[in-house]
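Fold this: Carbonic anhydrase
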Amino acid sequence: MSVGERLYSSKVPASYLGADQDFKLKMVMMSCLRVILQASPCKALWRRFQIPRSMLARPCSLYTCTYKTRNGALQPLWESVDLVPGGDRQSPINIRWRDSVYDPGLKPLTISYDPTTCLHVWNNGYSFLVEFEDSADKSVIKGGPLEHSYRLKQFHFHWGAVDAWGSEHTVDSKCYPAELHLVHWNAVKFENFEDAALEENGLAVIGVFLKLGKYHKELQKLVDILPSVKHKDMLVEFGSFNPSCLMPTCPDYWTYSGSLTTPPLSESVTWIIKKQPIEVDHDQLEQFRTLLFTSEGEKEKRMVDNFRPLQPLLNRTVRSSFPHDYVLNIQAKPKSSTSQVPP
């Protein structure tokens, strides 16, 4: 699916759209205009587009609901686009193999998670979050492109209405049916997640693609609890879970400087996108789609297509932890049968 198709086929989540159809249309048009203007010479114009506000019942660590601004108690999802600082490093992006640059100086990423720090699962009306206790360095990542260790705050997923799309990032314009984000914050430079989420090098997010394949036994533990958080604002305890089980075995990754993909869209994220996807079966993905954007008693709206449209790369460089000259060689001329190809 092309960037244009992603832009116009993506939906504004029902959790922050009202019943009025004109309002819905306005929101979608504004989202599209924002991306178009941001990529054009008239980039400054997109800051003029304001998105209406609503209220949220509980602070959320998916998008920075509790950030320290005058709007701390107001709508955290798609607040107002003028909160984006500069707008030159927005996420997600399309990762192009031929344009990524191998950096032999990138270190291996070290992941150390303590299963006992897992707290609960929560439907926040946009995705479901698995949140962790983060007052100490118990569940952390370090190495890779990071100068400091980063504490795990939460992880969540983005997925589509069907298996043909759903991931936020794409690779050579290829969409995956879902994408996992593990969100970490820099506890060396900042006192709390909320402050870190607003500043450069404040967050590190590991992105893992999900593709259709074999049944994922560890993921099923999470899938089994989803009926307990079917509606918005439902929360259930979920202890002793190690998200390392959701990591691919291959250590290779891409990295670039980007932003949150939900408001306030702060350009505070060092993205680490795993090259190898993990496999899940169709029925497991279908359980994601049984969740609802809506609260109990409201008209039911399925939680699907909760991804942001692709953003322009502009002057950024995507670095890879692995050499890939062979990809260019394959495109230039055929190699022997032992040559590797992208997944």
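Confidence is low (pLDDT under 50) at residues 1-85, 326-342. The radius of gyration is 19 Å.
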